[in-house]
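Quick check before the chapter quiz. The format below is the same one you will see on the exam, so make sure you can read both the input and the output lines.
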Amino acid sequence: MEARTAVDNWLRPFLFVAEGHPLSVPSHEVAYTAGFFDGEGCVNIARYLKRGRPYHILAIIFTNTNFQVLEWLHQRWGGNLIRQVVRGNPRHRPCGYLRLSPGPARPLLIAMLPYLIIKKSEAEIALQFIEAKSDNRTGRKGDPAALARRADLATSLPRPRSRFTDFN
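Here is the expected output.
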């Protein structure tokens, strides 16, 4: 067994978990991912009704027309990679997206947080949203305090830019 110094431990790559298996991601790749997320990423908290009650679900989404970079992100962080083909307008290139649910998104967000600039506040809200998960000990209805906290966090996210402009 070899002895390691504090410097050796500092230089080792980060260790994260993506989709249940350990994955080693060097810090320069984490920084690249954070930069890509600042430009092409999205934090989405969707609201839906189930049996008349509102619920919220978080997704971290990367969208791009370059499938190689999406494959690269998928190999390192997991998630669901979808190749979407746009057939409506022949001038539009096909684009794809990588969607991460809260499980794989948590280690990604924690790793990217020191490197984020533009979307740092959104990533912090997403991490708070993940941590405010309701425990199932309160029955099928869920913990009302946790549900209210998640609803509050969902409304605190900045609204996405609209594709359409209102003309009066």
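If your answer matched, good. Residues 1-22, 162-168 have pLDDT under 50 and may be disordered.
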